[in-house]
C-alpha cells in the first residue's frame, strides 16, 4: 500500500513546460477504440526480426509506428500545417506531470471532454508525446476581448514507459529550478527561504 502511495506522489510532480500543444476532441467511441490498442509505441517482435537482425532496423520499425501522426507533426514544425479539423485546436502548455498537463487554449472545451493531445517534450520520439485524456478543469483568463482558457487535462491512456519519461523530465526540471533559486539567493549550498 505504501509503495502505491509513493508511486502516486511521483506521478503528480509538475514541471514547467512552455511549448505548443495540439488538442483534438474525440468521441466516446474513438476513446473506447483507443483503449483496445496498446498505449505508446510497441516494441518490435525480436523473433520476427530474426537472430541476425540489425538493431537499427528495430529502431526504424519502432519509429514507423503511427507514421501518419508523425508526418502531421513534422509538417507543423516546418510551417506547412495541414488544415486543422474543426475538432482540433492549438494551445500552449504551461506545466506537465505523469498525471496530466496544464495548458492555455483560445477554445473553451467542456469539462469531461475526451481528447487526444500531442505535446512536444524533450526526450520523446521526434520530441512528441501523444496521450488520451479528459478535460478536468477550465478557467477563463483575461477580459472578454481576449478570451483564453486555462485548461487542465488528466491523462487516461498513456504507456507506462512514456509516463516514466514524463516523471523523469519533471524531476529533472524541478532540480534545475531549485538550483536556479539557490544561485539567485547567493547561497549555492542552501535552499531558498
Count of β-strands? 7
Enumerate the strands of the largest sheet in spatial order, edge to edge or round the barrel: 2-3-4-7-6-5
**Structural class assignment:** alpha+beta
As a percent range, the share of helical residues equals: 25-40%
Give the mean pLDDT: 76
C-alpha end-to-end distance: 34 Å
Main beta sheet? 6 strands, antiparallel, barrel
- Shape field: globular
Q: Unreliable stretches, pLDDT < 50, 5 or more residues? A: 41-46, 80-85
By DSSP (H or I, 4+ residues per run), the number of helices equals 6
Order of helices and strands: HEEHHHHEEEEEH
The fraction of residues assigned to DSSP E strands is 25-35%
Indicate the radius of gyration in whole angstroms: 19 Å
What does it look like?
- It is a single chain.
- The protein is built from six helices and seven strands, in the order H-E-E-H-H-H-H-E-E-E-E-E-H.
- It has 193 residues and is an alpha+beta fold.
- It has a six-stranded antiparallel beta barrel.
- The radius of gyration is 19 Å and the shape is globular.
- Residues 41-46 and 80-85 have low confidence and may be disordered.
